[in-house]
Amino acid sequence: PELLEKMHVKKHYSVIGIVSDRTGGGPQLFSMDEGIKSTNTEVIDVEWTNDTKGGGGQGCMIVIGGYDPSDVREAIKVTFENLHHYFGDVYGNAAGYVELQYTARAAGCLTEALGAEEGKAFGIINACPAAIGIVMADTALKTAGVNIISVATPSHNGSPSNEGTLTISGESGAVRQAVIAARERGLELLGQMGDKPANDYPSYIQ
Amino acid sequence: PELLEKMHVKKHYSVIGIVSDRTGGGPQLFSMDEGIKSTNTEVIDVEWTNDTKGGGGQGCMIVIGGYDPSDVREAIKVTFENLHHYFGDVYGNAAGYVELQYTARAAGCLTEALGAEEGKAFGIINACPAAIGIVMADTALKTAGVNIISVATPSHNGSPSNEGTLTISGESGAVRQAVIAARERGLELLGQMGDKPANDYPSYIQ
Amino acid sequence: PELLEKMHVKKHYSVIGIVSDRTGGGPQLFSMDEGIKSTNTEVIDVEWTNDTKGGGGQGCMIVIGGYDPSDVREAIKVTFENLHHYFGDVYGNAAGYVELQYTARAAGCLTEALGAEEGKAFGIINACPAAIGIVMADTALKTAGVNIISVATPSHNGSPSNEGTLTISGESGAVRQAVIAARERGLELLGQMGDKPANDYPSYIQ
Fold first, then answer.
1. Could you say which of B130, B137, B160 has the minimum Cβ distance to residue C50?
2. Who's near A192: CB < 8 A, 6+ residues apart?
3. CA-nearest residue of chain A to C50?
4. Rounded Cα gap, residues C28 and C62, in angstroms
5. Fewest CB atoms within 10 Å of the CB: A164, A186, C12, C23?
6. What confidence tens digit (pLDDT) does each residue in A98-125 have?
């Protein structure tokens, strides 16, 4: 309990769970969002690290709380089961990477960590090096009428990673359309800087 | 336009250009300075990233603005044409690297990004690990009468990179002499920690 | 002297020494603590870098001051002689690392850099990815009655590294016992994420 106080955890839970990784934040947060949706748990804290094992992006650490060990364990189990799914639209080559995320209905992890609106569609458009992310953001905003939640660039960001990131909310069809248009533009740009960008798991945003 | 507002861009331009990289800032900024000199464009924003593909330094992102697409395109073309030149005094080995930059006459990119004085000589003395940069800075300041513009160390810096950096201005002969003396000291120190430091392109500071 | 002023060095010394590295902070600071104990020198400044050559941790830079060149040289010599010793409880594998440090009696480097109490036992419990460090911290605090000096997580830290870190002081037996229990838990967790974590030098905390 003394440890939790020092960790800037505000509420009191009887059980705490932590998910922490070296590479990536989007897939982990979208996966945890499924975990939170299906259990009686809450996200307490999300922290970002300038890591990615030498890449230009970030790792993250998610702390969740609950009142029953089986709930917390279940939330983490659901998170891991969803990770491959949400890595489906992360494409990389030697020059950098392009990441897209989309959900028709955001829950407590995405609202807490990224300012998503509860129950509304939410999307992430992200790339390294940063300029690709910004051009993709521009494409997305020109494609469909969506709301900007945040724009992050290297110096206006939680951690000085080499990323340009746009998060959006709105009507689910519009958010999906914006994300898909940004993906097309991003893969084209990143592909011009190296090999054809490849994903490790099948794309889920159709 | 909504995107630009969120990106902390203050002035209004009709055309925007972005140069973004994984590794290095000095060569990109000095190259863009040539692009700005030769076109009707301005540097709007420079942001730093803690990247270098796993190295101890930084990458950067430069946003420029203009009123004519051909100007912005030309500025970026000139930037790319100058990159090899300004990578000429970047020397590395497995232990780290030493970077020197010098111009007899700074223009709008170096003034905006690094506080150089318009039209005056400007130099950068930089190395990783940080201690080498500091010893080089000491050598430079003992060699010639120049003005300190900034001293950056890991915790007093835009991004927590492992660099010691001195930027100087003044009479062009003095700035060049200071930079050359620092280079000699830096190559000697870095060489003691590994192989002879090597540059990928011919040195341009003579 | 103008350089030192810009470097945020407050006191005036006639001789300055700098130790700077790409990877690690604990071993360097504990080694420098021995250097400070055995000479008439003081630690002026410790800065952290988000480096580790692509790892999830930090490098550091230590600036010391003295009044006699031979003192400063001796302090740095003692530091280098102790480095292998204090790397003895740094264990790594492809997934991350676990670091433990312990001294029965902290001196001027650890007090200045990490808030240790002069002359009292002091320990560090640290791991990457961050969640391992937090579980280890929890184990340590449940094992023995020690005082928390600091808890660092990725976003509540000098630099956005992927580390969870606990520093503790107290009765020397209790601090050692807490550190040893945390080590056991950390090696177990990190081992589950990859190969058996290995140290490069013999463990010194028994």
1. B160
2. none
3. A50
4. 8
5. C12
6. 999 999 999 999 998 889 999 999 999 9
